[in-house]
């Protein structure tokens, strides 16, 4: 399988998120008005983000990385449906031999975050769930196998082995507003495998989107986000005698 390095173009998805922010007028309360609370609109806008960790790992020649972007909705400043799209890339060589494993393939996750912060001050404390899926092909090669009896050698090279994985992720994270529509956040994830289908010749060392292959693992992201949305409104009630 010929690995294609396509991750560099993913950053361009963020450029479409920049919009002008209009000036907001101040609420004027009359002498008989009472400010009850901030009220979030039902549809609070959309946001696009990129995981800085995955792109940084690839830029600094890490042997494996998940490079991803995400899009999400804001519902009442509490519920955040989200879709994450990425490319997993791994080129791993054995430390004590010349065995090599390679895979480059897309993946996706869908899920929902919930904001536990009751104050509408721009800071968010998230808890959430993701369903992940990846269909990929991986390669494995090793040094030639020597036959001592006949004095011959045969190469060991397995290519385009099919694999599929499904998994769930439990997510906990925080996010804060940096400036205007720009936000920064991070999260940690506990991932556990639901289903795996691999070649009879062996399981992959790395699964795109999931990470190092196994029954469960930990992960995390650091997200730079462009958040285009409506701000909370002041809920005002007329004072009654």
Order of helices and strands: EEHEEEEEEEEEE
Quaternary organisation: single chain
Find the CATH topology of one domain. Answer: Porin
The main pleated sheet reads as: 8 strands, antiparallel, barrel
Catalogue the unreliable spans: 1-36
Mean pLDDT metric? 81
Description:
By secondary structure, the chain is mainly beta. It has a domain at 33-88 and 105-134 and 165-233: Beta Barrel (Porin), CATH 2.40.160. 3% of the residues lie in helices and 63% in strands. It is built from 1 helix and 12 strands. The chain has one helix at residues 52-59, and strands at residues 33-39, 43-51, 64-75, 79-93, 100-115, 124-147, 152-179, 182-197, 206-207, 211-212, 216-229, 233-238. An 8-stranded antiparallel barrel has the order 2-3-4-5-6-7-8-11. Strands 1-12 form a two-stranded antiparallel sheet. It starts with 32 loop residues before the first strand and ends with a strand.
Summarize, please.
This protein has 241 residues and is mainly beta. Helix content is 3%, strand content 63%.
């Amino acid at each position: 399988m010929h690995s294609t390095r396509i991750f560099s173009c993913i950053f361009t998805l963020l450029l479409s998120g920049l919009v002008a922010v209009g000036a907001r007028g101040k609420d004027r309360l009359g002498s008989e008005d009472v400010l009850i609370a901030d009220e979030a609109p039902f549809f609070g806008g959309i946001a696009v983000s990129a995981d800085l960790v995955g792109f940084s790992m690839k830029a600094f020649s890490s042997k494996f990385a998940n490079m991803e972007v995400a899009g999400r909705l804001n519902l009442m400043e509490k519920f955040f449906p989200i879709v994450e799209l990425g490319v997993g890339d791994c080129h791993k060589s054995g430390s004590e031999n010349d065995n090599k494993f390679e895979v480059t393939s897309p993946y996706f996750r869908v899920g929902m975050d919930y904001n536990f912060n009751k104050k509408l001050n721009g800071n968010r404390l998230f808890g959430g769930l993701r369903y992940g899926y990846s269909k990929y092909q991986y390669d494995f090669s090793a040094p030639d196998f020597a036959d001592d009896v006949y004095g011959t050698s045969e190469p060991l090279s397995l290519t385009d082995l099919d694999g599929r994985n499904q998994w769930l992720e439990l997510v906990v994270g925080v996010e804060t507003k940096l400036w205007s529509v720009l936000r920064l956040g991070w999260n940690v994830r506990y991932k556990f495998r639901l289903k795996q289908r691999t070649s009879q010749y062996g399981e992959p060392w790395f699964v795109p989107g999931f990470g190092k292959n196994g029954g469960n693992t930990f992960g995390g992201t650091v997200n730079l986000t462009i958040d285009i949305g409506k701000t909370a409104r002041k809920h005002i009630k007329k004072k009654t005698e």
